[in-house]
Amino acid sequence: MLASNVKGVKNGYPLRIEATTVETKTADFNPEFLKRMFPKLEWKAFCEASAALGEKGLPAQVSPETLEDEEFLKAFHHSLLELHVEEGALICPETGRKFPVNKGIPNMLLNEDEC
């Protein structure tokens, strides 16, 4: 996930999502990929991001047994691979600085005074 790199920011992660347009795009379901990807995520931040996009079905805690549950894996797959922020902003938790997202691309470029 992305973090704010504005000069002086100590707590720039995780960026909050403010989505005005979210699209769902179908992706192939691959349970093994999801199981390998899971340990690389900070689950709490992922759940918050997913909730910001309107998805409320992910559990707060995940055990190794949960990773064998196909319904969980489908919900995880949907949030991770099928939800796309097309328009909106990523917001620094410390400064409130908004990084715009246009056509699915976040603009993380800093102004000269922020470097």
Give a quick set of tags describing it.
115 residues, 4 strands, single chain, alpha+beta
Give a nutshell description of this structure.
The protein is an alpha+beta fold and 115 residues long.
3D structure, described in words:
The protein has 115 residues and is an alpha+beta fold. The protein contains 3 helices and 4 strands, in the order βαααβββ. 26% of the residues lie in helices and 22% in strands. A 4-stranded antiparallel beta sheet has the order 1-2-3-4.
End-to-end CA span? 20 Å
- List unreliable stretches of 5+ residues: none
- Tell me the series of helices and strands, N- to C-terminal: EHHHEEE
Number of helices: 3
Secondary-structure-based class equals alpha+beta
| Global shape | globular
- Residue share in β-strands: 15-25%
In helices, the fraction of residues equals 25-40%
Number of β-strand runs: 4
The Rg value, from CA coordinates, equals 15 Å
- Mean pLDDT value: 94
Q: Please describe the biggest sheet, giving its number of strands, its sense, and whether it closes into a barrel.
A: 4 strands, antiparallel
Strand order of the largest sheet: 1-2-3-4
